[in-house]
Design a protein that fits this description.
The chain is mostly helical. The protein has two domains: 1-92, no CATH class; 107-240, no CATH class. It is built from ten helices and two strands; from the N terminus they run ααβαααβααααα. A two-stranded parallel ribbon has the order 1-2. The longest helix is centred in the middle third of the chain and has 37 residues, at 95-131. The protein is flat. The protein starts with a helix and ends in an 8-residue tail after the last helix.
């Protein structure tokens, strides 16, 4: 019996290793492929900022290319990572658990994409317009934009929105597992809203536009989680 258990354990270890190799290989391949789009990304950055950007060191351009390629490789590899998780976990799950897993992973990925898209198309342009106002730059101050730092800021900004849009999945999981209750979410609503605005202030640039733009959809998603909890998790309505 122990020998069979040991064999089963090492079978799982080898399977995890093989799946990690698949994900790592996909990241490397997609990173190299993403480097081909570097000129388009540079052009898009110019369209976003609408002014010249500068690189201040000789290695700066190369390092920025490498960083962008790796980040895009990681981003485009997310579906492959999710598929490997599904293939690894699926045999051990019951039919209903499989449905929950597909819903959780699918909604998580869609919410992440929604957060990134929303930040890129709506929040980022408004934030840049606000931060470029002349009141912040007196006549004797020249604004010089570092390409490297802007790329870091851009990815931090987009990923921050994508990750924040994940919290409904976590919240619904906690509700489903009875770790928290719908009544508690309603009771602590004002405190959660305060925490949301604090997190938004940390993750976004120091301007009220982007902070509200991140906090508002998070509050809406929080309310949506309460509604889903009331309708679809009725045994969770009562307080502790």
């Amino acid at each position: 019996m122990n020998k069979n258990r040991d064999m089963a354990f090492w079978d799982h270890v080898y399977e995890i290793r093989n799946r990690l190799l698949v994900v790592t290989g996909s990241v490397l391949v997609l990173s190299v492929a993403s480097s081909l789009f570097y000129p388009l990304i540079v052009k898009e950055v110019g369209n976003i900022i609408k002014e010249e950007v500068y690189v201040f060191t000789y290695p700066g351009g190369f390092l920025t290319l490498v960083n962008i390629s790796i980040l895009l490789g990681l981003f485009f590899s997310i579906p492959i990572l999710l598929s490997q998780i599904i293939l690894f976990v699926l045999p051990a799950l019951k039919a209903r658990e499989k449905v929950y897993m597909f819903l959780a992973l699918g909604s998580s990925y869609l919410l992440f994409l929604s957060g990134v898209f929303f930040a890129y198309k709506s929040v980022l342009p408004a934030s840049i317009i606000f931060l470029k106002q002349k009141i912040f730059y007196p006549e004797n101050v020249v604004r010089v934009i570092s390409f490297e730092k802007f790329i870091s800021f851009l990815f931090q900004f987009l990923i921050g929105f994508g990750l924040c849009f994940q919290f409904p999945v976590v919240l619904l999981f906690l509700l489903k597992m009875n770790i928290i209750r719908t009544a508690s979410l309603i009771k602590n609503f004002k405190y959660v809203v305060g925490i949301i605005f604090i997190i938004s202030a940390i993750l976004t640039p120091p301007d009220i536009v982007s902070q509200i733009a991140l906090a508002a959809p998070m509050v809406v998603l929080y309310l949506l989680c309460i509604l889903i909890g009331i309708i679809f998790i009725p045994h969770n309505k009562q307080g502790e």
